[in-house]
Specification:
By secondary structure, this protein is an alpha+beta fold. It has four domains: about 180 residues, HUPs (Rossmann fold, 3-Layer(aba) Sandwich); about 120 residues, Beta Complex (Methionyl-trna Synthetase, domain 2), CATH 2.170.220.10; about 180 residues, Isoleucyl-tRNA Synthetase, Domain 1 (Orthogonal Bundle), CATH 1.10.730.10; about 100 residues, OB fold (Dihydrolipoamide Acetyltransferase, E2P) (Beta Barrel). The protein contains 22 helices and 26 strands. Strands 17, 18, 19, 20, 23 and 26 form a six-stranded antiparallel sheet that branches. Strands 3-2-1-13 form a four-stranded parallel sheet, with helices on both faces. Helix 4 packs across helix 7 and helix 13 packs across helix 16. The longest helix has about 30 residues. The radius of gyration is 32 Å and the shape is flat.
Length: about 700
């Protein structure tokens, strides 16, 4: 079978992030850490691998950001390309090239790719109706149009998808009451000409290639492809009416650019060409990576990009001719944040550059947590409490604990020198037997893109080490049997050396630090499982902690930050409730609303929400119970004047008779604000 073929080289690509904002943990978990793990693994094995990434700098999100900030699209992409590239560097995403789709190489390559399809008659020219802003004199893309979703009736569905509602793909003409996203200008439907890729003509080939040839793909990828193919493919526009992007290289196509999902995946090829042209002695030609059957290509993406990488881009390459197809597309599901969908527009995210400001030097902690909770088969959730638990209970208590004990004990009993191993006991042999197959198990999981399981395998090796030290107790033997202690420490150090190899794909910074402490210049995958990695007589460096405990107050600060963002979003998205049914002046007159002065205020025992007010109402005084304790301290209300309904019949709350109701307004964030006069008023005065 094709999947068993031995390839000469591996090409790994990652989805190009839009250069309209920074990258967040969802990006890292879904695409970039898994890809980096895989690439680092292949390099450790000595395989020929090329890791290609870059920024997607065209498309509507970029122009929307530019309009919002009042700057040019080029200024937007220059800023965010640098920020994204630096974030990936900071987290050890080890690209061989990270370029951009505004490069000259890419513009030329993408234009030539399109022109070949055009010249070969592989594209069809179609006239369609598209929303047009007559006031601005321009066509609007689907993302520039908003309206009510015809399916779930979400009020702000975009023209291409109901992102914050039911998630369905949409056409702008399906929206109820469509309007421009950034203005209230009236829209009209107007004819426009664009060029389409006839996906329907490639259905049979796609069914054979994917449904028959790649049943080993992840179920989410295979299932989504099957659904698209079963429903029948339609021609897809490869050009757009926009002024930002790569101009369509056809006479008479002024004011049109290549569709971003035509242009962006070609960036994988043009970035490869850019690297090969600059370093041909190291990398050879770009053609050997893209047009040679001895190359295996893997696309790492999120589930929202499956159709583009499995159906549209392969069809583009098939129509062009000469290109290899991806051998696997291990798409991940989505990572949520504290139970809610990560959203750039709502700032509901953990941004990578901000994470490093709050947790300097803890790149590997985040890499570990995101891999341990990777959304490989279903959406998963990142929580700050979970982050703390993964760090404290696993990285610190298991991996860091074993490494530190092994090195500290070696310095204490063996002067920091790797001792000779003497005769092995059954306990030694049992520990060695447990980890001798670690390479086979780890390799199998990584090669099948089961990174969560592979990480567990690596951590199990540290568990074996901790159990071994607990079983052998070298600190108790030091006074009576140093020869035995030396053997124990040799075995413990060999496990430590194995850990530095096993964790290299996952925790590159920590693995490098560990190798420095034990004098290993490099990690070699073929040594994994060996018991003679560290030679006797080697002098070890002084041990330093690989990980440190993260305290509750640090985590609470992150939780509080998200709560503030949530409240800001509620306020920013506030829309008044519809006015209720009409009432007459006679209805209103039935309410006796008065002004009173708060004489005393206290919390009601065993009732977290209730406050007890003693009110000067200008008459005999009264007691009122109000459910506003969440928003006020009792002492802050003493002396204030409030409005209350005086003619409600008394009722008992928590055994206290309440003689009225204090009026309050609910603000956009759900907070209750007590209503009172703006100036001093005699207690007992009526409101009307």
């Amino acid at each position: 079978m094709e999947k068993e073929k031995k390839f000469a080289r591996t090409l790994v690509t990652t989805a190009l992030p839009y250069a309209n904002g920074p990258v967040h943990i969802g990006h890292l978990a879904g695409v970039y850490v898994p890809a980096d793990i895989y690439v680092r693994y292949l390099r450790l094995k000595g395989e020929n691998v090329l890791f290609v990434g870059g920024s997607d700098e065209h498309g509507v999100p970029v122009t929307q950001r530019a309009r919002k900030e009042g700057i040019t699209p080029q200024q937007v992409v220059d800023r965010y390309h640098s920020l994204i590239r630096d974030s990936f560097d900071d987290f050890g995403i080890s690209y061989d090239i990270y370029s951009r789709t505004t490069s000259k190489t890419h513009h030329q390559f993408a234009a030539e790719f399109f022109r070949k399809l055009y010249d070969d008659g592989k594209l069809i020219e179609k006239v369609t109706k598209q929303f047009y802003d007559e006031q601005d004199g321009k066509f609007l893309t689907d993302r520039d149009v908003e309206g009510e979703c015809p399916y779930c009736h979400h009020p702000a569905a975009k023209g291409n998808q109901c992102e914050d509602g039911c998630g369905r793909d949409l056409d702008p003409t399906e929206l109820i009451n469509p309007h421009a996203k950034d203005s209230d200008h009236p829209l009209v439907l107007k004819d426009t000409t664009n060029w389409f890729l006839p996906l329907n003509e490639y259905e049979d080939w796609l069914k054979e290639w994917i449904l028959e040839g790649h049943k080993e793909w992840r179920s989410n990828v295979y299932g989504q492809c099957k659904s698209w193919l079963d429903n029948g493919l339609q021609p897809r526009a490869m050009t757009r009416d926009l002024d930002w992007g790569i101009p369509v290289p056809v006479e008479g196509a002024e004011g049109k650019v290549l569709y971003v999902w035509f242009d962006a995946p070609i960036g994988y090829i043009s970035n490869t060409k850019e690297l090969c042209d600059a370093q041909s002695e190291r990398w050879g030609t770009w053609q050997q990576w893209w047009q040679n059957d001895e190359t295996r290509m893997i696309h790492f993406i999120g589930k929202d990009n499956i159709v583009f990488h499995c159906i549209i881009f392969p069809t583009m390459m098939k129509a062009h001719g000469g290109y290899i197809m991806p051998d696997n597309v291990p798409a991940n599901e989505f990572l949520n944040l504290e139970g809610d969908k990560i959203s750039t527009s709502r700032n509901w995210a953990v941004w990578l550059h901000e994470y490093l400001q709050d947790f300097p030097g803890k790149q590997d902690v985040l890499r570990y947590v995101l891999t341990a909770n990777a959304p490989e088969t279903k959406d998963n959730d990142f929580t700050w409490k979970g982050f703390q638990a993964n760090n404290n209970n696993e990285l610190v208590a298991i991996l860091g604990n074993f490494v530190n004990r092994a090195l500290v004990l070696t310095h204490k009993f063996c002067e920091g020198i790797v001792p000779e191993a003497g005769e092995l006991t059954d306990v030694d042999r049992a520990a060695i037997e447990e980890f001798k197959n670690v390479k086979t198990v780890l390799s199998d999981h990584i090669e099948h893109f089961h990174f969560r399981e592979a990480l567990k395998d690596a951590m199990d090796l540290a568990r074996i080490g901790n159990k071994y030290l607990a079983d052998t107790e070298p600190w108790k033997l030091a006074k009576t049997d140093m020869a035995r202690v030396q053997t124990i420490m040799n075995v413990a150090l060999q496990i430590t050396a194995n850990l530095s190899i096993a964790f290299e794909p996952f925790l590159p910074f920590s693995s490098s630090k560990l190798r420095s402490m034990i004098g290993m210049e490099q990690a070699e995958w073929n040594r994994l499982g060996s018991i003679d990695i560290l030679p006797a007589g080697r002098q070890l460096e002084q041990p330093v902690l690989l990980f440190e405990k993260i305290e509750d107050d640090v985590i609470q600060a992150q939780i509080d930050r998200l709560e503030r963002i949530k409240q800001e979003n509620i306020i920013n998205n506030f829309k008044p409730k519809p006015v209720t049914t009409s009432c007459t002046i006679d209805d209103f007159a039935k309410l006796d609303i008065r002004v009173g002065t708060v004489l005393e205020c206290e919390k009601v025992k065993k009732a977290d929400k209730l406050l007890k007010f003693t009110i000067d109402d200008g008459m005999a005084g009264r007691t009122i119970i109000s459910g506003i304790a969440k928003w006020y301290e009792p002492e802050d209300l003493v002396g204030k004047q409030v409005c209350f309904i005086a003619n409600f019949p008394p009722r008992k709350l928590k055994g206290i008779e309440s003689q009225g109701m204090i009026l309050s307004a609910e603000d956009a964030g759900g907070r209750l604000v007590v209503i009172g006069p703006t100036g001093p008023v005699k207690p007992g005065c009526q409101v009307g």
